[in-house]
């Protein structure tokens, strides 16, 4: 699941946003949301290619809300002031449900940030979104790996570049606990299992986990299966699985589920701070890693965005209270599998000013503008690590920019919603609660038919 409604801790953001405003100010004479632009100033030189649309308006609709939405507004402020284009962004908790309604009713936004490739494909097949301009396509191909761009390409037509990203292939831990116990961060799967045994023998449950998420209960377990499948079978089988070229109950999928079960269904390993294996199904994913801060468990596999779930005052850093390491590959010689998610910038209109905004959002200028404001991860190759202050975000960008990384999008978001956000989620709950792998996978396979 590409989790987007991410609660934020009380961060010291006012100063960061103030600095960003100062950094993005375009000097005197800036337009007031639609007035004359400041195109001639030196600060506006990077935006020359986007000129000619003074006074035009572009609407954007997304699931990004609250403080993240405010930060987006700041990230394109200089672009607005230098081009005269007025960007109006609306974030909604009902985005996934309402966007199809608006599109079908002829009331689509100019641009949408779509986090599910399957939903993007739906709009493409109905002819509701526009092919990206040649400029946007060229910008995207220059700045993003091909692994990303295939998710916004349908029937050979490219529809838009990624925007934000997240990395799911992480294991959270306490650097202080590791130092005190003499434990070393593992770099292979075998080392991680050996470490788990060492921790268990010390009297601490090595792993904590939680898959309860209200109507979306089960999604954290699907991430486990996806991450393990990438490591056991590689990207080709993963792609065949997400497109149903091989059945859900294929023996290779069962093998990955069973390997995940050597951790998640191992009473010796889980569930530190909460109980036994079955407690995983009733533990809220937001709370699942907290026992690490209490010394009750040592490891928690969860995405980069989990940095925002730790109790207030928890320091996230390599030498802090908590940090994360890359979820190790089983055979490092085969590359560095990376599971993640993100949003894609697609357009329902091909007006010139809309194309200009879509191209700009694929640029290095925007990626760096947004990163300077804080709490941002992007797969954009032009993103300068010096502009990424948050340690876990910096580690995420390093992984995404690593040439050895083999990226694949969250599998449940690639599947039909009835499966990926339905029977797959539910099946994982049944599996945690004791149902055998073969029965669970057969049930999910039957739902796909």
TrEMBL record:
InterPro entries: Bact_solute-bd_prot1, SBP. The keyword Glycoprotein does not apply. Pfam families: SBP_bac_1. Residues 1-22 form the signal peptide. Keywords: Signal, Transport. PROSITE patterns: PROKAR_LIPOPROTEIN (PS51257). Belongs to the bacterial solute-binding protein 1 family. This is Alpha-glucoside ABC transporter substrate-binding protein. It comes from Micromonospora qiuiae.
């Amino acid at each position: 699941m590409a989790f987007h409604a991410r609660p934020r801790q009380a961060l010291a953001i006012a100063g960061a946003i103030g600095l960003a405003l100062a950094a993005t100010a375009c000097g005197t004479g800036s337009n007031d949301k639609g007035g004359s632009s400041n195109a001639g100033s030196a600060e506006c030189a990077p935006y020359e290619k986007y000129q000619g649309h003074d006074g035009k308006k572009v609407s954007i609709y997304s699931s990004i809300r609250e403080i993240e939405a405010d930060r987006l507004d700041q990230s394109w402020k200089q672009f607005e002031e230098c081009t005269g284009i007025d960007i109006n962004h609306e974030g909604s908790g009902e985005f996934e449900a309402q966007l199809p309604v608006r599109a079908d009713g002829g009331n689509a936004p100019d641009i949408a940030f779509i986090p599910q490739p399957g939903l993007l494909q739906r709009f493409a097949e109905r002819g509701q979104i526009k092919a990206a301009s040649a400029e946007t396509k060229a910008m995207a191909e220059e700045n993003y790996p091909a692994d990303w761009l295939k998710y916004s390409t349908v029937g050979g037509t490219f529809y838009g570049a990624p925007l934000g990203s997240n990395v799911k292939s992480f294991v959270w831990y306490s650097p202080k606990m590791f130092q005190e116990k003499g434990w070393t961060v593992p770099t292979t799967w075998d080392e991680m299992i050996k470490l788990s045994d060492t921790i268990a023998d010390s009297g601490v449950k090595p792993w904590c986990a939680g898959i309860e998420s209200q109507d979306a209960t089960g999604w954290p377990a699907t991430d486990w299966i996806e991450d393990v499948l990438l490591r056991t079978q590689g990207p080709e089988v993963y792609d065949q699985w997400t497109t149903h070229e091989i059945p859900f109950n294929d023996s290779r999928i069962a093998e990955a589920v069973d390997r995940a079960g050597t951790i998640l269904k191992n009473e010796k390993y889980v569930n530190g701070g909460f109980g036994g294996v079955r407690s995983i199904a009733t533990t809220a994913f937001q709370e699942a890693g907290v026992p690490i801060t209490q010394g009750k468990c040592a490891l928690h596999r969860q995405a980069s965005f989990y940095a925002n779930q730790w109790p207030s005052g928890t320091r996230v850093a390599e030498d802090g209270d908590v940090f994360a390491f890359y979820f190790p590959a089983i055979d490092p010689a085969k590359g560095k599998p990376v599971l993640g998610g993100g949003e894609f910038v697609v357009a329902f209109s091909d007006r010139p000013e809309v194309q200009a905004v879509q191209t700009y959002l694929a640029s290095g200028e925007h990626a760096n503008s947004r990163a300077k404001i804080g709490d941002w991860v992007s797969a954009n190759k032009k993103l300068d690590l010096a502009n990424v202050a948050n340690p876990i975000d910096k580690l995420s960008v390093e992984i995404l920019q690593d040439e050895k990384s083999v990226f694949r999008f969250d599998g449940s978001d690639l599947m039909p919603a009835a499966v990926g956000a339905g029977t797959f989620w539910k099946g994982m709950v049944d599996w945690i609660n004791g149902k055998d792998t073969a029965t669970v996978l057969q049930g999910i396979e039957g739902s796909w038919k």
